[in-house]
Design a protein that fits this description.
- The structure is a single chain.
- This protein is an alpha/beta fold and 467 residues long.
- The chain is built from 18 helices and 19 strands.
- Strand 18, helix 17 and strand 19 form a beta-alpha-beta unit.
- Helix 2 crosses helix 3, helix 8 crosses helix 9 and helix 14 crosses helix 15.
- The longest helix is centred in the middle third of the chain and has 18 residues.
- The chain is rod-shaped.
- It starts with a strand and ends in a 14-residue tail after the last helix.
- About 2% of the residues have low confidence.
Length: 467
């Protein structure tokens, strides 16, 4: 019978060869393949079975030899590593059958692919939508490969990388990493396996930022996680969602997932991709709240301001946030305040404010800041409405009565707004976040507070923990 069986023999371990492939090899009159792979099947061959090697990178000759033998009424098994249908011989055999108008019967037997074997060694990294990309440009132009990389990164696919490097291809993997870093958080898990299933096997787990392309070679499979992937006990895990659905029936994670997707969208549309992490985190919050990409131009953060204020929260030196109006206080996430032991308060509703304002001839927001400074001189002060309140704080700082841990200057309007923001800039020893010009608002001041309180989620680009 004229027959070709195209069989995947797995990644290289005898234990990973399927029983169906073993049986096909036992019945073969001839086995055609690259000589390196004969060692994995020779113990199953019947006496007299031919082993025909055409050499590496001579796949077309291999296929022609298989057809020539099959047309002599021999049963021929063409072997590929992994799965013969994934960067293997199966497509070529089917194409050649059409080209030759051959009556040879073709059967394909699946094998355990290299990326599946690598995934099992890394943990459970391919638990959700996955794509596979080869970086070999022998058959595919690099321009096409790069478009596919871009699509995979933007689409949040778990991505397996075949043929990552060779002696002549040294830069393509660096370019892939660059593209993924434009669309994924720096802490995205990355796993790679060298010689999966063989004696030389090496398994490593790292992050997208720390991944070093020099650590891999042509015999390495790389798996990049998606935005949900994480590392636990040195294993990569990409959840399918079952645990979340069972443990959080209220659906809180749905809101977080929407926010995460929004942040990825915003990040992709920024004019720059090289902002420092703590400025980026504040910027993403600001644009997410306002849908205004002008924030990229007008949002100013002192160097390390977000990170330093978060560290003050973590070490307990920052315990209070004072706001100019109650709307700012309302917008600060209660879950974050409770989780971190922080109090957020506004003095406008304090009974002493109206009396002080009348006696001292100032606005109620100014009076509120005066009272706040008496009780919390070292608080984080957040302004989203009243420029006069921000100006009052500046005067109290100059008089030595206030020593704020930080200042969020985002009052909105047309009178004294710009001036109030200029007044705060000379205080170089106070970490500041400033929305330049007339723009601002209570919602903006609140979201910048939230950015500080959740800065430990920035590297993973996972906002919304406390929704």
């Amino acid at each position: 019978m004229k027959k070709i069986i195209v069989a995947g023999i797995g990644p290289g371990s005898p234990q990973d060869i399927t029983p169906a492939v073993m049986e096909a090899v036992r019945e073969a009159d001839a086995v055609v393949g690259y000589k390196y792979y004969f060692q994995f099947v020779e113990s199953y061959l019947k006496p007299g079975c031919e082993c025909i090697d055409t050499g590496m990178k001579r796949e077309s000759e291999r296929a022609e030899q298989a057809f020539a033998l099959a047309e002599e009424n021999k049963t021929v098994v063409v072997i590929s590593s992994g799965d013969a249908g994934i960067y293997g011989m199966a497509p070529l055999i089917y194409e050649m059958k059409l080209q030759r108008d051959s009556d040879v019967e073709i059967t394909t037997l699946p094998g355990i692919s290299a990326f599946q074997k690598a995934a099992s060694l890394l943990g459970a990294p391919i638990g959700h939508d996955t794509c596979i990309i080869s970086l070999s440009d022998l058959m595919t132009p690099w321009e096409v490969i790069e478009r596919r990389i871009e699509a995979a990164a933007m689409g949040d696919f778990v991505t397996a990388i075949y043929n990552p490097k060779s002696h002549g291809r040294y830069w393509q993997l660096y370019r892939l990493q660059e593209i993924f870093l434009q669309h994924r958080a720096t802490g995205t898990p990355v796993g790679y396996v060298h010689q999966a299933g063989r004696e030389e096997e090496i398994v490593k787990v790292t992050t997208l930022k720390d991944f070093n392309p020099e650590d891999v070679d042509m015999f390495t499979v790389i798996i990049i996680g998606n935005s949900q992937s994480y590392i636990a006990d040195s294993k990569m895990i990409t959840p399918r969602g079952y645990y979340r659905n069972q443990s959080e029936p209220t659906g809180n994670k749905i809101g977080q997932n929407i926010m995460m997707e929004s942040f990825r969208t915003i990040k992709n549309e920024l004019s720059r991709q090289d902002y420092p992490l703590d400025h980026l985190w504040a910027l993403l919050h600001a644009i997410h709240t306002t849908a205004d990409f002008d924030m990229e131009r007008i949002l100013h953060t002192d160097e390390h301001a977000v990170a330093s204020l978060f560290n003050k929260v973590k070490d307990g030196t920052l315990k209070t946030i004072v706001t100019d109006v109650t709307m700012v206080t309302s917008g600060i996430r209660k879950g974050a305040l409770e989780r971190l032991g922080i109090t957020a308060k506004c003095y406008l509703s304090d009974a002493r404010v109206a009396e002080m304002a009348a006696q001292e001839g100032c606005t109620r927001t100014q009076a509120g800041i005066r009272l706040a400074v008496e009780e919390h001189p070292d608080a984080l002060y957040a302004f989203g409405n009243a420029p006069t309140a921000l100006m009052e704080l500046c005067e109290l700082i100059r008089k030595g009565k206030a020593h704020p841990a930080g200042i969020i200057a985002a009052p909105v309007g047309f009178v004294h707004v710009r001036e109030s923001k200029h007044m705060v800039k000379p205080f170089h020893d106070i970490p500041k976040i400033i929305v330049e010009g007339r723009k601002g608002g209570s919602n903006l001041a609140a979201t910048l507070c939230n950015a500080i309180l959740t800065f430990d989620d920035a590297e993973q680009l996972k906002p919304g923990r406390d929704l």
